[in-house]
Amino acid sequence: MRKLLRLIFLILMCLPILVQAQTDFRVGYVVQPNGDTLRGEVDYRGAQRSAYVARFRQQGQVTEYSPTQLRGYGFPGDLLYQSETIQLADSTKQVVFLEVVVSGPVSLFYMRDRNGTDLLYLRNVNSELQALTQTTERIERDGARYDQKDNAFQRTLAAALVACPAVQPSLSRLAYTTRAIANVVRQYNRCVNGGSHEEAASTEKPISLAVAVMAGGTGSQLRFVSDVNYANTSIRSGLVPVGGVAAHLWLPGLNKHLAVRLEALYMANTTYKNTYEGQEDMYTVYRETYAQLSSIRVPVLLRYSWPGKRIQPFVQIGVSGSYLLNSKNETRYRYLNRAAFPDYYPWRAIIEQPRKFEQGAIGSIGLSVLPASKHAINVELRYERTNGFSDAYSITTRLAYYSLLMSYNLTKQAQ
Known about the structure:
Layout: H1 2-21, E1 25-31, E2 37-43, H2 47-50, E3 54-58, E4 61-65, E5 72-74, E6 80-87, E7 93-102, E8 106-112, E9 118-124, E10 130-132, E11 135-141, E12 144-150, H3 152-160, H4 168-171, H5 178-193, E13 208-225, E14 235-236, E15 240-250, E16 258-280, E17 283-305, E18 311-335, E19 348-349, E20 357-369, E21 377-386, E22 396-409
Antiparallel strand pairs: 1-2, 1-5, 2-3, 3-4, 5-6, 6-7, 7-8, 8-9, 9-10, 11-12, 13-14, 13-15, 13-22, 15-16, 16-17, 17-18, 18-19, 18-20, 20-21, 21-22
């Protein structure tokens, strides 16, 4: 167990170095001010960074471009960015890269500013860029406070899309999301263009799902917490096998590096044994404690992955719920210096009615490797802390799990 902890500590120390070194160059291009297109590789980064800088690599040399130095850049069949001038809240103007969500008679653009705010812009053919905004104002009425929204974006859309009456009725109910607005703009473009229009990739792509199988090993520590002397010692188990399945959902519409992971794992019987020798009531007592647990575990995890073409470091946090298939626990003792009581007293339960459901919190670090087969392989070190199997007031339980896990995606992953 100590070796595992040392390994986890070493990886945690090295992870910042790995993160700083990570880039995610993919096949792409940049469009220069004179219209010439340079083809090579472009660094595929998050929405915020992509709005302010484009890193282009050609023949091993990396060049950083600001929005004033390019017309735009993109990734074939994926994202397209266009250099545009926007007006900030203080009325100053700034040149940024806007992501083209929809392109056509009416185009929709998206960016995430330095404050992490998502912004949307609209443009009719041969017209100025218009901001789509929604503001919230706190008002007081009859002694109560309310949040009142000003859906200015709906009025802007109504004026811009007036040439297609079919889209107008839905605008008053339209939600302020990239997906909802993009769908209306696409509908308008089909309406005025007879079903033929050019369209760029959407910022909010469909959620991707992968199914994986998992296997590994888990060691753990059990502790009975009470005012009984022997109970507060941590009891370690050996390494036991763990296996199961997982569903992995990428969330590109929220953040390109985020994913949600749902797992179902079976942990085999885990045995805890401990002996204690001490003074109780002026006598020397020799006590044995024994527990055996097995469970079906269902972790729900949020994963953040750093960019990388073949290797991606990741961290995960989440919660777990477990159903205990076996929660046997018992103790026995004998007096070493009382001649009248030479033998052990019978085994008796420590927690007479163990609960069946266990809850906990999880943290992990790991690496995801994408081989040529595009079936991702994940290796991770995981720590889980739970409330164990005791509902008793006088004696509670704490469990800590240390796991080394590997998973293999049965679903192919696009690069």
